[in-house]
Each structure stands twice: as C-alpha cells, then as structure tokens.
C-alpha cells in the first residue's frame, strides 16, 4: 500500500450503498436518453405533443422540446459524476431528478403514460441517491499487512 493512501473500512452495508449509487447512475442514464429523445422529437415535429387548448401551464412545443433536451443533457452529466464518485454529483443528481419529475408532471396532459414512467424513474433516482452513503475512512493507523479491513 502506498504511503499516501488511507485504507477504507467497508461493511456489508457499503455493498448496498454502492449498488444504490450504481442503480441511480444507470437510471439517470436511461432518463437522460429518454429526455433527449423526447426533446429532439418535440423540436423536430410539432405533432409529437398532443394539443391541450385549455391547459394552465400552456407552452409552445419548441419550449417543451428545449426543456426536455437540456434537462436530459444535464442529467447525463450528473450521471457521469455519480459513476465517477464526485461528491456534489449526488446532490446535483437529486436536484435534476426532482426538476425532471416536476417537468414531467407539467407534461402529463401531453403524454400521460410516458410522463408517469419518467416520474417514477426520477423518484427512484432521488431515493437511491438519498440512501447512498460512501464508506468511511479509518481514523487510526492503517491495518497491518495480514489484517483484514472491516
């Protein structure tokens, strides 16, 4: 072991935590792809969205397209950060997942089933990132070469 490395104590719960982080990252990649595809489809064709004439949160199809496209790109970058183990990526991932859920809630009249699927995925990402905790570092000297870290 190099002198500048600090051993990390791991427990059985750490395996679950890492699994949750990996799950959240995978779901974020899927959500990002879905959002980008929906954004591109809305920008390419005005017929992609169902028209709702009396909707309170009325917006142009182009605005919805750009919203989903930008949100998908940001979620994709946050997913890369979660996979890389960047600390702030977890908070950013939770924030963009919440924003994605809100955007899809506002999109319910246009695409009800698709919006509900994305809301469920966003909630799963928030849950997984909220449950994820990193292994803690030992405060004492490193273990002897033959000792197993717990």
UniProtKB/TrEMBL annotation:
Keyword set, alphabetical order: Membrane, Transmembrane, Transmembrane helix
Transmembrane segments: 20-43, 55-83, 89-106, 113-132
Entry keyword tRNA processing: no
Residues covered by the DUF7144 domain: 21-133
Keyword Magnesium: no
Name assigned to this protein: DUF7144 domain-containing protein
Organism in which the protein naturally occurs: Nonomuraea rosea
